[in-house]
């Protein structure tokens, strides 16, 4: 049985998140800035992906998670990239998914190039991220959730 996967994403500045998710094959990808249809009921798996902005996932991706239409059996997951991993940046998204009683099956995160604020002085951090190793680990994550 072929399981359909969609990933809804927001990626600004250095396009770290976009680079990560566009490494996948056989996945339908939707940018929140071009999200016209909110009906995702044909998908078995829905991912919500974002860079981290001011310590949180994008407001656009959080709004999409509140509004989209999913089938009852859909499984949802979170993906994010961040300059430095100081905490779980997906708590707001987890709260939204849990409040909708969705089948939340996990998250993937990795570092991404960041030159915001004080990091600019040093030329940024995590300059080469996401790396090929990050992308390989992301693909493994997607494979594993498809086989739950």
Please give a structural write-up.
One of its GO terms (biological process) is heme biosynthetic process. InterPro entries: Flavoprotein-like_sf, Protoporphyrinogen_IX_DH. The protein has helices at 16-21, 59-67, 91-99, 132-146, and strands at 5-10, 28-31, 45-53, 56-57, 75-82, 103-111. With 148 residues, it is α/β, with parallel strands linked by helices. It is globular. It has one domain (5-146): Flavodoxin domain (Rossmann fold). The model has no long low-confidence stretch (mean pLDDT 87).
Write the layout of secondary structure elements.
Blueprint (H helix, E strand, L loop, with lengths): L4 E6 L5 H6 L6 E4 L13 E9 L2 E2 L1 H9 L7 E8 L8 H9 L3 E9 L20 H15 L2
Parallel strand pairs: 1-2, 1-3, 3-5, 5-6
Antiparallel strand pairs: 3-4
Helix pairs in contact: 2-3
Protein name: Flavodoxin
GO biological process, one term: heme biosynthetic process
InterPro entries: Flavoprotein-like_sf, Protoporphyrinogen_IX_DH
